[in-house]
Design a protein that fits this description.
heterodimer, A: 126 residues, alpha/beta, 5 helices, globular, B: 533 residues, alpha+beta, Beta-Lactamase, Helix Hairpins, 4 domains, five-stranded antiparallel sheet, 17 strands
Chain lengths: 126, 533
């Protein structure tokens, strides 16, 4: 039976970042968070987890965020799942300057606080 | 005559009696011993003694005089030397007078012998002096002459004679008009006249030609005065100063050339100094650019690595804060400080990225006054909170400038926030814009504006605060990255570097100075579209 909580897949090669996101998001009791630190395993993890939204780091060893986003989009199992980039490669000003999107996808600029992440999740998941 | 008188006598009378045309006997007066050393008796006893005491070099003359007497002639007096009995040489003057009988026949010869030794000595001394004087005159390189009261040459030296190819005799008694061309002679005579009138030495520059070459002489002319103070002669000593004059003229020319060269050198030096100054400014800018490039490269490289840990800390703080009992104020404060620290660290990374111009430059045509107004609105809450009065003097008709809106807004926001921080006790923030021709309507100087061309149409923005101003010693480094005068933790030390970098990116100029009575003025200059080709 599918949990009432929204499923969030966090893909980031930094384990401490995924751990902090998991702790903060799950503390709200609204989200179930799965962490994936190996980009090469991320697609399989996503297809298995069936997330409602994917938080995706951009710069990662192995497969980078951009490539992964394409693969997620191409997967029939993940069709319609929103992807939000979480990147250290841009500033907040750039985020607002580009309408909050990279390559057509929304993104959050690191460091981002919990409130902003929750606001973003609410925006895409209601 | 007593003996003492005889001893000191200098004249001797004598009489020679002739018989059949031959001397029969001779009688000498009492002075003969004083003059010759021989007594009258000795001379009388030995008729040839007189001939013998005559100086060997003068005997012929003495004999000749005697012959003429015997022939009945009346020879002139003869001056000759005799050898005194003591061996000393004496000069005498023998003046014979023929005595005749009633029939006109010579019967005797009377005569007077005068001792002229002293006179001869004086004459010799005079002769020597005259010879010395002539030697001095003749060996002088100057032209020396003496003229009588009528202006006739009475003495010239060898130099005079050599230069004008004339003998002393040829010059003697002549006037300048007899020797020189009329024009030259007139000048010389005129100078002589002045000296006679002045009764004192005068100096003249005179031109005399010899061997077809004109020569310049410095002539000292002075009058020779008689006992009554009347000039009886005039002496001229002329030194050839042609070479000296030519050297002086050449020196003058060289001096003039040197002066010109010095002026040219001075101009060149000034240009060199200016060029050097510009070069130094350029070098400083290049160093600054190189520094920024390095900072940018580093920033871009570390941004990712820094932001990830910041992300972890920020979310860690969020997590800890969410589980905190409300009463624990200290931990709340610590967590709040940690959040602020993350924000500051992130701001530094952001500014470094901005400084390196790593972000895209997207210029569009824009009105600077509108952009300034927009930027002011973005800091409105800060100005209100800081109790700052904002005074706007924005020109409504500025020519458009090409600028990256977001970057230029950041420039003004940074400048406004700096101004606010400088006026912690409140004050007035004045923002003005205007436009004009650089260097004509708008006078500005300093290395910051060196790359702007005079006459270029520019737009200017001025941001003025009423704070304490910037210490003069800090002004040269004010745009250096990480240079800050603010308290630790306030600002990143990159704000003005970012501002400068963005202004440079726009090809503009920015400078900060202190304005009386206090406060700093930031002047920002941007080129207008009208200057674009």
């Amino acid at each position: 039976m599918k949990s009432q909580k929204k499923r969030i897949l966090v893909v980031d090669d930094q384990a401490d970042i995924t751990r902090m996101l998991k702790l903060n998001l799950e503390q709200t009791d609204q989200y179930e968070v799965r962490m994936e630190n190996d980009s090469r395993l991320a697609l399989a993890a996503a297809e298995e987890f069936h997330p409602d939204l994917i938080l995706l780091d951009v710069v990662m060893p192995g497969i980078d965020g951009g490539e992964l986003a394409s693969r997620f989009a191409a997967s029939p199992e993940l069709e319609g799942v929103p992807i939000v980039f979480l990147t250290a490669a841009a500033t907040k000003e750039e985020v607002s300057g580009r309408g909050g999107r990279i390559g057509g996808l929304p993104f959050l600029a690191k460091p981002v606080n919990t409130t902003e992440v929750l606001r973003c999740l609410k925006k895409y998941l209601g | 005559m007593n003996e003492r008188a005889q001893d000191s006598a200098t004249d001797v009378f004598y009489a020679v009696t002739l018989e059949q045309g031959r001397p029969a006997w001779t009688v000498h007066g009492p002075g003969c011993e004083a003059v010759t050393g021989y007594t009258a008796g000795e001379l009388q006893a030995d008729p040839s003694l007189w001939h013998r005491i005559a100086h060997s070099e003068d005997r012929l003359a003495v004999a000749a005089q005697a012959d003429r007497i015997l022939k009945g002639e009346a020879p002139p007096p003869l001056e000759h030397r005799i050898i005194h009995k003591s061996g000393a040489i004496r000069w005498i003057r023998n003046t014979p007078v023929i005595r005749e009988d009633d029939l006109g026949r010579m019967i005797a010869c009377d005569g007077l012998i005068s001792d002229i030794t002293e006179r001869k000595a004086v004459e010799e001394q005079h002769r020597l002096r005259a010879a010395q004087m002539q030697a001095i005159l003749d060996n002088s390189p100057a032209i020396i002459h003496l003229k009588d009261a009528q202006g006739r040459y009475i003495l010239t030296n060898r130099r005079f004679q050599q230069l004008f190819h004339l003998s002393a005799e040829e010059v003697l008694g002549k006037t300048p008009h007899d020797l020189f061309p009329r024009e030259t002679a007139s000048v010389l005579c005129n100078h002589d006249k002045k000296v006679r009138a002045a009764l004192a030495p005068l100096e003249f520059e005179e031109t005399l030609s010899h061997d077809g070459e004109p020569h310049t002489y410095l002539s000292v002319k002075f009058p020779l005065l008689d006992a009554a103070g009347v000039p009886y002669a005039l002496c001229g000593i002329s030194t050839d100063i042609t070479g000296r004059k030519q050297a002086a003229e050449q020196l003058e020319r060289v001096c003039a050339e040197l002066f010109q060269n010095e002026a040219a050198l001075k101009t060149a030096l000034e240009q060199l100094q200016l060029a050097n100054k510009n070069l130094q400014a350029t070098q400083a800018q290049l160093i600054q650019a190189a520094k920024l490039e390095l900072v940018g490269t580093l920033a871009a490289g570390v941004a990712h690595e820094v932001k990830n840990p910041l992300q972890t800390i920020l979310m860690g703080v969020d997590y800890l804060a969410s589980g905190l009992p409300r009463a624990n104020d200290n931990i709340t404060l610590v967590l709040s400080d940690m959040r602020d620290a993350v924000t500051r660290a992130n701001a530094i990374v952001r500014d470094l990225l901005e400084l390196s111009a790593a972000t895209a430059f997207e210029p569009v045509e824009e009105d600077l006054s509108s952009l300034v107004e927009r930027s002011l609105r973005l800091v409105k809450s800060e100005t209100v909170a800081s109790k700052i009065h904002v005074s706007c003097e924005l020109s409504p008709n500025l020519p458009p400038v090409l600028l990256d809106r977001r970057k230029m807004e950041q420039v003004f926001i940074n400048l406004f926030l700096n101004a606010l921080q400088a006026m912690s006790q409140g004050g007035v923030l004045t923002v003005a814009t205007r436009h004009g021709r650089f260097g004509q309507d708008l006078k500005m100087s300093g290395p910051a504006f060196a790359h702007l061309q005079p006459g270029e149409l520019v737009v200017i923005a001025e941001v003025r605060d009423t704070g304490k101003g910037v210490p003069e010693e800090h002004l040269p480094r004010i745009f250096d990255p990480f240079f800050t005068t603010k308290a630790v933790g306030v600002g990143t030390g990159l704000g003005l570097s970012v501002v400068k970098n963005i202004v440079d990116l726009h090809g503009g100029a920015i400078a900060i100075h202190n304005a009386p009575p206090g406060g700093a003025v930031v002047t920002l200059v941007l080129k207008t579209q009208h200057n674009q080709a």
